Predict the 3D structure of the following.
Amino acid sequence: MKDVNLPAVEIIGYEGIWGVLMMVVLVYPALWFIPGPDHGHQEDLVDTLVMFYNSVYMAFSAVMETTSLNVVFVESSFFMPFQVDERICPDALANKGIPSELGGVALVS
């Protein structure tokens, strides 16, 4: 990821797209075929969509929760950029040729 020249917000967006694709393509079909208490399935996606259709409040709360979490994550990428701390991250030290000898945690003053 070091050679990718993308803004943090765009990387977060791609992360979300991949997450949605994985859920739709892999997780929901797997949960449909695993036996469970939700109409014979572990997760009945059709029943979930019907519940959202029948309850405006439930659909609204799901949309608001998703929106608020996305706003928090995007805002945090602007105001708290992630910096590699060389005192904690041994990978940052390995790039400089400094071995980590304290069980994976290198302390450098």
About this structure: Helices lie at 8-33, 45-54, 56-79, 90-94.
